[in-house]
Design brief:
- The protein has six helices and eight strands, in the order βαβαββββββαααα.
- With 208 residues, it is an alpha+beta fold.
- The protein has one domain.
- The protein has a five-stranded antiparallel β-sheet with strand order 1-5-6-7-8.
- The radius of gyration is 17 Å and the shape is globular.
- It starts with 13 loop residues before the first strand and ends in a 24-residue tail after the last helix.
Length: 208
């Protein structure tokens, strides 16, 4: 059964915070990561279906980066990716890397208001993958707290182009697909994320 009971973050609360050396000592993910590093690997990647909300929130709470959402949400902990944290304050969620704010996400009740900081432009300019993963990781944090992922009709019309990684409209589109498939398979889905079409945003066009 696909179920989730939500709780909205309060102002000034950290949605999650765990530095590279501050992750819970008893986390099984630490054991996996350390074993990977001991074997000469850069880290690990794992998948979780969006409808497995407890698993999704568990991985987000432990600081795994979101590196794809093609067939499921792809989570990763890699030596090349620094620790991040997401903080909630004054109705906005902010993603920090190494103590510096990169992306700030608010909303007007229906649409996502996403802005890049100077730190984001500097880091993304020098490490393009960091910019992509920052955006792809913040989006599920927004979704599990019922926040909008669609910025406007123009961006939503291109959502089909971001079916694997990229802009927040990508997971907004894929969440709808994931939940529809789960329902068609007979599962009861209780989702924290409202379908973008349900709040007046027209459906996206298929990529050509």
């Amino acid at each position: 059964m696909c179920r989730w009971r939500g709780c909205a973050p309060g102002d000034g609360h950290r949605v999650w915070s765990a530095g590279a050396h501050e992750r819970p000592a008893d986390s099984p993910l630490n054991t996996v990561y350390e074993a990977c590093r001991a074997a000469g690997l850069h880290g690990f990647r794992l998948d979780a279906y969006w409808t497995w909300q407890e698993a999704v929130r568990y991985y987000l709470d432990r600081g795994l980066w979101v590196t794809s959402w093609n067939h499921a949400l792809g989570f990763a902990r890699l030596s090349s990716l620094p620790a991040y944290e997401v903080r909630a304050r004054s109705g906005e969620l902010t993603l920090f890397v190494e103590g510096e704010p990169l992306l700030v996400a608010g909303d007007d009740g229906r649409r996502l208001l996403l802005r890049e900081t100077a730190g984001y432009r500097r880091i993304a300019g020098g490490r393009e993958v960091m910019g992509v993963y920052a955006r792809s990781t913040l989006a599920p944090h927004l979704a599990v707290h019922g926040r909008p992922l669609v910025r406007g009709e123009e961006e939503w019309a291109r959502a089909g182009w971001w079916c694997d990684i990229g802009e927040p409209e990508g997971p907004a589109y894929k969440i709808g697909v994931f939940e529809r498939v789960a329902r068609e398979d007979g599962w009861r889905v209780e989702s924290p994320y409202a379908d973008a079409c349900a709040v007046g945003v027209p459906p996206p066009q298929a990529p050509r």
